[in-house]
Prior knowledge:
Blueprint: E1 27-32, E2 38-44, E3 50-56, H1 67-75, E4 79-83, H2 101-124, E5 129-139, H3 141-152, E6 156-162, H4 168-176, E7 182-187, H5 193-201, E8 210-214, H6 223-226, H7 230-244, H8 251-254, H9 262-270, H10 275-289, H11 298-310, H12 314-327, H13 332-344, H14 348-361, H15 370-385, H16 396-399, H17 411-416, E9 430-441, E10 445-454, E11 464-470, H18 487-498, E12 502-505, H19 514-533, H20 535-538, E13 540-550, H21 558-563, E14 568-574, H22 586-595, H23 597-604, E15 611-616, H24 621-637, E16 641-646, H25 653-656, H26 660-676
Parallel strand pairs: 3-4, 3-5, 5-6, 6-7, 7-8, 11-12, 11-13, 13-14, 14-15, 15-16
Antiparallel strand pairs: 1-2, 2-4, 9-10
Amino acid sequence: MRLRYAILGCAAACLLSVPAEAQTAKRDVDLAAPDGVKLKATYYPAAKPGPGVLLLHQCNRERSRWNALAQRLNDRGIHVVTMDYRGYGESGGERHVDLPPQERVRRSTEVWPGDIDVAFRFLLEQQGVDRENVGAAGASCGVNNSLQLARRHSNVKTVVLLSGTTNDQGRDYLQYAAWMPVFVAASHDDGGIVPSMRWLLGFSGNAQNKMLEYKAAGHGTDMFAIETGLEPAIGDWFTQHLIRSPVKRTLASSAAPASLGPSAAFWKMLNEPGGPARARPIYEAEKKKDPRVILFPEVEVNALGYERLQSGRTEDAIHLFELNVAAYPESANVYDSLGDGYMAAGRVEEAKAQARKAIEKLATDSSLNDQGRQAIRESAEQKLRSGGAGGDGAASNTTTASRPAAATPPPAEVYRMPAVLTLPGMDAVTVRRDVVYKTVTASAPVELKADFYIPAGAMAASRYPAVILVSGGGVEAGPGRDWRDGGVYQSYGRLLAASGLVGIPFSKRYQRGREGVSNGQEDLLDLIRYVRQHAAELRVDPDRLAVWSFSAGGMLLGVPLRDAPPYVRAIVSYYAVMDAPENVPEDYRTFLNENTPLAMLRRNGARVAPILVARAGLDNPGLNTGIDAFVREALAQGAEIQLLNHAQGRHGFDILDDNERSREIIRATLEFLKVHLR
């Protein structure tokens, strides 16, 4: 049965600076959210210069639950800010509990990050706060909020997480930010949160990580009243890692995969081709070494198994379901899910045996409520009534799951396909097409052109930040396609303009090979110069530019990474080439090794603009190896970087994979750009 916890995700959003004088006593403050909604916060100024900490409450409490801990940290020389989320406590906005479920998720993923960034920026602007030495703590939904804050802001050096979990982005960040020590605490009477948090902590490879487990302390900050040593322990943690031995990011501490935690290493293997078949003996060996180890929660492997069924990888799904049975033998759901896998493979009698086992376990599985128990029973009984294999005879939740993955459309069709996200106002933007930014002379003059997608209602004096869209499509020979006319770049131009930015797709000379890459880089540099020189007529702010590359267009990122100009304020890379590929001629490899984004990053380090990298889990392994190396190097160099991983995404997921994860990544990217271009 396909059961899964709901996890609140976050995306980057707007920042607002609110300077203030340092005070000697706590004071309540009113902050303005990016859309003007009032946010209530409390500032606890320390008596002397020192680090800062932002405390983020759980979703059934308010900021006041942090009062005692905030004062304790304050007494230790740490500046503290607590805040009420929008819709909670004294903050404005419609009450969160009154919203429909879908709107709650939208608010938490698309709106709260911007609100939290406002409070974070307020903390950094206070007199005496060490802006490069900051921590965050969160309870329940605040766990994800804290990890997303750390992912957006590289000056968050440690986090404290109470009774909560996170999404793929948060886990990815823990994996790559092995330099960041993590403190977690949870109680065994709080559902299955203890094993989930053990698993979460296992994504971090930091040797200083700490976990406190309690028997019956409740949830989140409610634990403070029962376990009176928890608040002092948190105080000791922040004192150690922000004052006594401030966290430093070094190459050694950022170097995955050696630093991968056990959860990350195992999860990585499960997502590799053939990984599920190798997982069982490795799991059993790890359990022998440490019977308490949690390499995966039941719910996560169950969900991954159904994803494999949906993509037609039935044998992988069966291995995953069998692994869950071995790890969670008292669960009724694991047997029902394994039955679905067997049914999809045509192993009907084995499927029915698992269905009977699931019904048997319902009597003793204490983790289920009445609704879950009934759902599993109905699913199992449907398999028992089935007389055939797969197809219409399979259980209803596997008929769709067993279909083969959709084939990638032919190139001509892909060329016409738009991005999978739409926004209000996309059709109202102004488009200036065929602006010639450069003429090159070969056998005959060739005009290179750009299109400008400008926000609706732009006045003559309007100046908007601009995003240059760098297409891939590097070909062996010939001019290739003019991707300005591609559906994806037209839709991205409109998405950017609907978000208050100017979108600029452009034609270029770009072929594989030394000359082709050099020509493409030269054309991008000339386009940037043209845009800045003609900014007024194009409605562009010449000092607020970003470069967004796709696929083979990643090779052109050497331009902003090499020069690190102050007017390029953000860089985005989608499933892009970041390092020299294998199997190229030696002279070309030598050229690439000096001009790849990875080479330029090593040269300029923390000087480069903030970077967002989106990665597709099902992409070419060699391409992903280069992306992973780039991310590790950025962390080691102290560059500001965000990683968005689409674990089940294909190369071109933003066109080909019409699902919520793809849309979530695009929305997060638009917010990242708005934050860094304001």
